[in-house]
Amino acid sequence: MEKILFVINPISGGNEKEDCKATVEKWWQQHQLNGQWMETTGEGDLERINTLIQEEKPETVVACGGDGTVNLVARALLGTPINMGILPLGSANGLATELRIPENVDEALDVLLHGQPLPLDGLLINGDHHAFHLADVGYNARLVQEFESGDQRGQLGYARSFLRVARNRPLAKFKIKTGEQAFSRRGVMATFANARRYGTGAIVNPDGRTDDGQFELCLFLPWPRWYLVWMSVLFFIGQIDKSRYVKIIPCRTLQLEADRPMPLQVDGELVGEARSISVEVLKDKVQVLRPAGD
Question: Which residues form the DAGKc domain (predicted)?
Answer without folding.
Answer: 1-129
